[in-house]
Specification:
The chain has 12 helices and 20 strands. With about 400 residues, the protein is an alpha+beta fold. It has one domain. It has a 5-stranded antiparallel beta sheet with strand order 4-3-17-18-19. Helix 2 packs antiparallel against helix 4, helix 2 packs across helix 11 and helix 6 packs across helix 7. The protein is globular and about 60 Å long.
Length: about 400
């Protein structure tokens, strides 16, 4: 795994924005206006390294789902996560019956040794468009003879095809005031639904209607049967909408059990179930069993919100609470991000339809201890010849048979 300088395309930002990455220059919340999409460098992997990432991702996903099943019956954890009791039976049924679309692990690795899991963004994960579309387009232009671990699009289409009938409607919703990134994710997923033979309908989540007998309907009173919501379950379950949602009979993506899988509580449960696993970091509900270096993570947080890094017993870095104020936290052993040159990459490995599907990398400058909204997305490639579409479909078929 090597970070190599690259010559950016002269019209790079115009290209990626036209392809759907509308926040390529706007996502950074910092004062310096550094762009989010960065193609002045790329990470190079060997085939063996990608094989290892794929193996680890599949194993971690299976472990996380086992942990989710355990958490569904752990009333102490459910209460700590503030899951209302009416939802508990739905969680237990969901984890056994409902299918899922996607999720993203964040891993630390420099290409040698054992990758370490930081967390599992299993509900409304970000960085889908840049991983599935933008970096692939970059590859075709800049590294046309090389490969990339990127089967997200193919797996998304295949997953929809497995679960939808021809011309079946799929509603895709997000919060009306949520960032442009959420709506771009919705737009891209609508394209994958369309390619799979479905009929996507996008609308703000607050425009979903409820009939007198509890059925959910769209703007024209069209029945909602399958709905992808770019809206986290911990928010939904905290509202009256949540009870109606789990009782509605709608197939939700992600399903309600992802409120557990996507929480930081899964880190503590996985460590309890798989102590000393080479791809896990020790994690607990209290720092008492950890040393002087650890990370405090709110149970329902993303993009670094509310995270605090403690070194030698003192706070070394922190991010404002934003949406995480008042939450309980998980305490995880601090692990330095491997430094490659002057940069600190975090590897986002994706799971689509229950299978490892690809890689997206966000990096920060050396010296920053937390990967947050000021991170930039950098493309990658495999130092190997390009796979053919037939090979990709063969791998997808093989994975689904195993």
């Amino acid at each position: 795994m090597i970070r190599l300088p690259q010559t950016p395309r002269p019209n790079a930002y115009q290209l990626v924005e036209e392809e759907g990455l509308a926040y390529a220059r706007e996502r950074n919340d910092g004062p310096d206006e550094l762009p989010y999409w960065f193609e002045g460098a790329a990470y190079r992997f060997t085939e063996a390294q990608v094989d290892e990432l794929e193996r680890v991702t599949d194993e971690l996903h299976a472990m996380a789902m086992h942990a989710t099943r355990v958490m569904c019956h752990d009333t102490a954890t459910l209460r700590r996560l503030r899951i209302p009791e009416y939802a508990w039976p739905h969680l237990r049924r969901s984890v056994e019956e409902n299918w899922t679309l996607y999720g993203r692990f964040d891993l630390l690795w420099d290409g040698s040794g054992s990758p370490k899991m930081l967390e599992y963004n299993a509900d409304t994960p970000a960085a889908l468009v840049e991983t599935a579309v933008t970096q692939w387009s970059w590859l075709e232009t800049v590294q046309p003879d090389r490969d990339q671990w990127n089967m997200l699009h193919e797996r998304l289409v295949r997953t929809w095809q497995k679960h939808l009938g021809d011309n079946e409607f799929v509603h895709l919703v997000a919060g009306v005031a949520e960032p442009l990134e959420d709506w771009n994710t919705i737009a891209y997923l609508a394209d994958t639904v369309r390619e799979a033979g479905g009929r996507p309908i996008t609308l703000p989540i607050d425009q979903i209607g409820v009939t007198g007998d509890g059925r959910f309907v769209g703007l024209e009173n069209d029945p909602i049967r399958t709905c992808f919501a770019m809206y986290p379950w911990e928010w939904m379950l905290a509202e009256d909408f949540g009870r109606r949602a789990v009782e509605s009979g709608v197939v939700w993506l992600e399903p309600v059990h992802k409120v557990l899988t996507g929480s930081k509580a899964v880190l503590a449960t996985m460590w309890e179930l798989y102590p000393d696993h080479p791809n896990l970091l020790p994690a607990y509900w209290s720092p008492d069993r950890l040393g002087p270096d650890y990370v405090v993570k709110p149970v329902h947080g993303w993009e670094g919100a509310g995270v605090k890094v403690v070194r030698d017993g003192r706070t070394a870095a922190s991010v404002a609470d934003r949406h995480t104020a008042g939450q309980e936290a998980i305490y995880q052993t601090y692990q330095e991000i491997p430094r490659i040159g002057d940069c600190l990459p975090v590897l986002g490995t994706w799971v689509v339809g229950g299978h490892a599907a690809g890689l997206g990398i966000r990096e920060t400058d050396a010296g920053r201890l937390i990967t947050d909204t000021q991170a930039r997305f950098v493309p990658h490639f495999i130092d190997a010849p390009r796979s053919t579409p037939q090979e990709v479909q063969g791998w997808i078929d093989e994975a689904e048979q195993n």
